[in-house]
Automatic annotation (TrEMBL):
EC number in record: 7.6.2.9
Family to which the UniProt record says this protein belongs: Belongs to the ABC transporter superfamily.
Protein name: ABC-type quaternary amine transporter
Keyword ATP-binding part of the UniProt annotation: yes
Keywords, in A-Z order: ATP-binding, Nucleotide-binding, Transport
EC class name: translocase
Keyword Nucleotide-binding carried by entry: yes
Length: 312
């Protein structure tokens, strides 16, 4: 668990982060989001002491990070950045081996860990280990960056807009890959983004900052969308916030209408789709009703009224 306790960062008379207090629970993805100049990247870098706080404390579990040797602290944390920062003249395997090598692991252990990590991020060692970064796509380089960050199996990953320079299709794939990896590795992840849709899609919790480093709201995505804490939060979320909320709810989790002896709707959706996908199907359906199925079993009917009630 990472705990910020009244953390402030000043540059002269300018406050980049103001009295930040929040807890990042162990094993969760917490998204830092907000406009440019709101202190989200500064807050992230203070965790690994790439930037030192002016006042306040940051604890990892029960240990004040200021009391830990700075090199030891940084080697215990994985770090992934937007431009990846791979060493261009190192092979993929050599890049992934960077931190284990610095940690003094022997060669057989390093080789086994590199193979394990490349398989984990979907880049089989047999195909990718000997390639140079220039031979990879942007998305593949980003996966290597994630593998390198996991080198010595850190408990914490810090991710600073890692997918910001990736095209939208590759970005969605990388987001899916991160969620898949998190199911396997269960790290504590702090992820900086300026994209509220990315924050809502990936985060277990979202910290929304305003300019001047003020934390406006810290909540789960569903709570953030349903109950904005201020006009700033509501404006930042935009008019589409209720549509975004539909993407967080699965059809299986709502109360469905019954058939009531009526003719079965022609359109069908799986119970595992989101209400946003179900709404698209409802709008396409001739009579505005869609059958919800799971396997070969009919669970009920979803229509616009059902979706409206579930989203409130």
């Amino acid at each position: 668990m990472i705990t910020f306790d009244r953390v402030t960062k000043r540059y002269g008379s300018t406050e980049a982060v103001r009295e930040l207090s929040l807890e990042v629970p162990s094993g969760e993805i917490v998204m830092f989001v907000g406009p440019s100049g709101c202190g989200k990247t500064t807050s992230l870098k203070m965790i690994s002491r790439l930037i030192e706080p002016t006042s306040g404390t940051i604890h990892i579990d029960d240990t004040d990070t200021a009391s830990v040797d700075i090199n030891e602290l940084r080697r215990s944390i994985g770090y992934v950045i937007q431009q990846v920062g791979l060493f261009p003249h190192y092979t993929v395997a050599e890049n992934v081996a960077t931190v284990p090598r610095l940690a003094g692991w022997d060669k057989p252990r390093i080789a086994a860990r590199v193979d394990e990590l490349l398989d984990l991020v979907g880049l089989p060692a047999a195909d990718y280990a000997r390639r140079l970064p220039a031979e990879l796509s942007g998305g593949e380089r980003q996966r290597v960056g994630v593998a390198r960050a996991l080198g010595v199996n850190p408990n914490i990953l810090l991710m600073d807009e890692p997918f910001g320079a990736i095209d939208p299709i590759a970005r969605e794939r990388l987001q899916n890959e991160l969620l898949r990896l998190q199911q396997v590795v269960r790290k504590t992840i702090v992820f900086v983004t300026h994209d509220i849709d990315e924050a809502i899609r990936l985060g277990d919790r979202v910290a929304l900052f305003s300019r001047g480093g003020t934390l406006e709201q810290y909540a789960t995505p569903a709570q953030l969308l349903a109950r904005p804490a201020s006009s700033f939060v509501a404006d930042f979320l935009g008019e589409g916030r209720m549509v975004r909320r539909l993407s967080l709810i699965k059809v299986r989790d709502i109360e469905l209408a019954g058939l009531d002896g009526e003719r079965s709707p022609a359109e069908r959706v799986d119970a595992d789709v989101t209400l946003r996908d179900a709404l698209d199907a409802v709008l396409r359906a001739r009579d505005g009703r869609v059958l919800v199925v799971e396997g070969g079993t009919t669970l009920g009917v979803v229509d616009a009224d059902t979706i409206r009630r579930a989203s409130q």
